[in-house]
Amino acid sequence: MSTTHDIKLEMHGAVAVITLTRPAKRNALSDGLILALRQVFETLPRQARAAVLTGEGEHFCAGLDLSELQERDAGQGVMHSRMWHAALDLVQHGPVPVVAALHGAVVGGGLELASACHIRVADESTFYALPEGSRGIFVGGGGSVRIPKLIGVARMTDMMLTGRVYNATDGERAGFAQYLVPSGTAYDKALALAERVADNAPLTNYALMHALPRIAEQPADQGLFTESLMAAIAQSAPEAKARVRAFLDGKAAKVQKG
Fold first, then answer.
1. For residue 12, what are the CA distances in angstroms to 1, 7, 49, 181, 244?
2. pLDDT digits (tens, 9 = 90+) for 203-218
3. What is the pTM for the complete model shown?
4. Domains of the chain by range and CATH?
5. Alpha-helical segments (H) within 43-98
6. How far apart are CA 51 and CA 171, in angstroms?
7. Per annotation, catalytic residue among 132, 195, 227, 239
8. Which residues lie closer than 8 Å to 183 by C-beta, 6 or more apart?
9. Which residues make beta-bridge pairs with 64?
């Protein structure tokens, strides 16, 4: 287990459980927490094959810690935003897939952080908002790139212009989360999913994290070529060959109706 003032890392088998530990601040994102998050993902234990990201207390993350909001010139503002980008890019394009366990506030920078994860599990207490528009600021942690890919530009524009808040049910329908579970069970569901993800072939997980998002943004002919390259690389791995052989020999489970 590794712990700082702002964040905690525990290993559950092959799953790294990363917890934001500022419950008195609703896990608001200070610069210290952003830097700690970056360090955690840069130094994950080698045995980690997947991760769960959650928040201590009643909320996942209520966004930017406004008590740290400073007057900056344009250059300083760019550098501060880029610091956030570097940290959240390590969540999205780091070593392992990340499952977010969402509850309570997923607001502003908290939504930007959640959108950098690969799977989002929300419980019924979850709510989503982007209050930056009413505060005279703009998203700076990658939200303008990641959030529209979940819910579309029109919904994000509406949220920022009007201050609209999505509850857990409407948020799941809009695309903020892939799973909606009863209150208090998001972590358990997220951990179960992460354990399932950790059992995948590592190269396949890497392809899903790093190749699939890029293929989706490429022109069709380039995307198909990238797909061919990634498919060839993935199936050439010894673990992939062993898994296919086990399936052909009737030793692997078949897909069942959900």
1. 10, 16, 11, 21, 28
2. 999 999 999 999 999 9
3. 0.92
4. 2-198 (3.90.226.10), 202-248 (1.10.12.10)
5. 74-92
6. 23
7. 132
8. 103, 123, 124, 125
9. 29
Confirm if 17 and 11 have CB atoms less than 8 A apart: yes
Does residue 112 carry a catalytic annotation? Answer: yes
The secondary structure of 91-134 as a DSSP string is: HHSSSS-EEEEE-SEEETHHHHHHHHSSEEEEETT-EEE-GGGG
Active site residue 68: no
The rounded distance, in Å, linking the Cα atoms of 205 and 95 is 9
Encoding tokens for residue 223? 């995307």
Structure-block tokens of residue 117: 């994860």
Q: What is the mean pLDDT of residues 58-64?
A: 95
User: Around 101, how many Cα atoms within 13 Å sit in the side-chain half-sphere?
Assistant: 26
Residue 135 is predicted with a pLDDT of 83
How confident is the model over 16-30, as a mean pLDDT?
Answer: 96
Tell me: pLDDT of 81 over 90. yes
Q: Which of 56, 68, 112, 124 is catalytic?
A: 112
pLDDT digits (tens, 9 = 90+) for 48-58: 999 999 999 99
| Distance of alpha carbon 104 from alpha carbon 86, whole angstroms | 26
What's at 33, amino acid-wise?
Answer: L
Q: Are 246 and 252 in contact (CB under 8 A)?
A: yes
